[in-house]
């Protein structure tokens, strides 16, 4: 066979191999969808962080195997993470899971870099989390009445921590202090994790927290519960009375968390994500975790979520005004 014929056949073979490799690579890329980026405008270790990570695998399964990445972007009471969300492309691959802070911020901050209603796409309110007021174990108080007496005996001498200025945890702390008629200094932190660490170490004496964020500490005794901040006792803390039943009915506050996307998502994208969250949080293992933490599943429709976010914004406006909290 002539050398040119051999060379021609070799080139054809190489071209065929290259084409096969290219097709295989293209198929592999087609079979590997872009991950769903879930922004959490909250610190690692917060109640919402724990809950969302517990459902990460189930959410990926509900999305037919699409990878799910969770990105903590705390700061400025949730503004940092939410701003990243509203700037994202409305392609259905970037969402955020927000908390009460989203509805609080319009009243707390004089100006936001986005509109908390107009610049988002509501998907679903996933659920709610009860709050508990806790103290360092060295604080000589085991209930709300004893803590009230201690605070009044040392006006302004004790500190309460929060996950940041103007956050729902800040407002919950202010609610407690105001209801018991005492004075205490507010110490803001950048997230729940460092706040809880410093209450445990005694750097600050007390603070409100989502129950899920302190369950381990309450069990080990490194934090002491003063009372549940909602209307009912919790199965996970059966011996801890509500603060209301201890004589302070004005203390009634709890957390919630909702999935949202950037403005401009299509109806098909919204439905796909809503249905995936419903499936993921109805997974038996995920539901069992919810029950264990005393969390409440809601999973309402996008339309209901839109109305809920507006009503919460209006409700917190009154609470913020009462607490006289204003930030730049």
What report would you give on this structure?
Strands 1, 2, 3, 4, 5, 6, 7, 8, 9 and 10 form a 10-stranded mixed beta sheet that branches. Helix 7 (168-179) links the parallel strand 5 (159-162) and strand 6 (185-188). The chain is α/β, with parallel strands linked by helices and 328 residues long. It has 2 domains: 36-128 and 255-323, 3-Layer(aba) Sandwich (D-Maltodextrin-Binding Protein, domain 2), CATH 3.40.190; 130-246, 3-Layer(aba) Sandwich (D-Maltodextrin-Binding Protein, domain 2), CATH 3.40.190. Residues 3-8, 10-14 and 16-25 have low confidence and may be disordered. Helix 2 (47-54) crosses helix 9 (211-220), helix 3 packs across helix 10 (267-281) and helix 5 packs across helix 12 (302-323). Helix content is 46%, strand content 19%.
Secondary structure elements and pairings:
Layout: H1 3-31, E1 36-40, H2 47-54, H3 56-62, E2 68-72, H4 79-87, E3 94-99, H5 101-108, E4 120-135, H6 144-153, E5 159-162, H7 168-179, E6 185-188, H8 192-201, E7 206-210, H9 211-220, E8 224-228, E9 254-262, H10 267-281, H11 284-293, E10 296-297, H12 302-323
Parallel strand pairs: 1-2, 1-3, 5-6, 5-7
Antiparallel strand pairs: 3-9, 4-7, 4-8, 4-9, 4-10
Please summarize what this structure is.
It is built from 12 helices and 10 strands. The protein has helices at residues 3-31, 47-54, 56-62, 79-87, 101-108, 144-153, 168-179, 192-201, 211-220, 267-281, 284-293, 302-323; strands at residues 36-40, 68-72, 94-99, 120-135, 159-162, 185-188, 206-210, 224-228, 254-262, 296-297.
């Amino acid at each position: 066979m002539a050398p040119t014929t051999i060379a021609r056949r070799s080139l054809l073979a190489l071209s065929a191999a290259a084409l096969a490799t290219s097709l295989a690579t293209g198929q592999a890329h087609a079979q590997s969808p872009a991950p769903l980026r879930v922004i959490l405008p909250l610190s690692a270790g917060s109640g919402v962080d724990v809950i969302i990570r517990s459902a990460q695998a189930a959410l990926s399964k509900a999305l037919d195997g699409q990878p799910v990445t969770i990105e903590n972007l705390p700061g400025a009471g949730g503004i940092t993470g939410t701003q990243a969300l509203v700037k994202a492309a409305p392609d259905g691959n970037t969402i955020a899971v927000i908390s009460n802070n989203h509805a609080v911020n319009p009243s707390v901050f004089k100006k936001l870099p986005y509109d908390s209603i107009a610049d988002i796409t509501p998907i679903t309110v996933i659920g709610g989390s009860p709050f508990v007021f806790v103290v360092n174990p060295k604080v000589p108080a085991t209930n709300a009445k004893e803590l009230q007496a201690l605070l009044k005996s040392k006006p302004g001498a004790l500190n309460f921590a929060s996950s940041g200025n103007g956050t729902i945890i800040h407002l919950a702390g202010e609610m407690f202090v105001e209801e018991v008629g005492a004075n205490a200094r507010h110490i803001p932190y950048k997230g729940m994790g460092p706040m809880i660490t410093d209450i445990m170490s005694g750097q600050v004496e007390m603070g409100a927290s989502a129950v899920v964020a302190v369950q381990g500490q309450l069990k080990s005794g490194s934090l002491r519960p003063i009372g549940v901040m909602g209307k009912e006792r919790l199965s996970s803390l059966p011996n801890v009375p509500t603060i209301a039943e201890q004589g302070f009915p004005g203390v009634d506050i709890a957390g919630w968390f909702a999935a949202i996307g950037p403005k401009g998502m299509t109806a098909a994208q919204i439905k796909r994500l809503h249905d995936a969250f419903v499936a993921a949080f109805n997974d038996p293992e995920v539901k069992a975790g919810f029950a264990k933490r005393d969390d409440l599943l809601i999973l309402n429709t996008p339309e209901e979520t839109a109305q809920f976010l507006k009503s919460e914004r209006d409700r917190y406006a009154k609470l913020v005004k009462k607490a006289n909290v204003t930030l730049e």
